[in-house]
DMT family protein (Providencia stuartii ATCC 25827), 134 residues
Amino acid sequence: MNFICFDLIMVKIICSTLTKMLAKSYPILLLVISNVFMMFAWYGHLKFTDKPLYSIIFFSWLIAFVEYCFAVPANRLGHQYYSAAELKTMQEVITLCVFVVFSVLYLGESISINHIIGFILIFAGAFFIFKGPF
């Protein structure tokens, strides 16, 4: 009987821990989705230079609306677990990661060593926001 009670307590603790871990990662997932839409809203039109600017702006705003539908809940939910500075830092790191994939796969651009060094320095800054020694 004691073993069953102990097992139930352990299951409850494990489930509670997993639930919190998932809840903390949900805003990150929403930020990633938001950033994919953001890349297309801000940079997707670069492949359509023959289209009039007013139509590009209109369609970019439509895409940006979808982006906001993910970003705003991500920040609202995320603020339960992270500070505003941590959320902004995550946003920037996610933006860079999504941008690299987007620019290589969609725009066909290459990433230079200068870009990589710059990104590493930005990631170092993110480290200090979350785990810095000060």
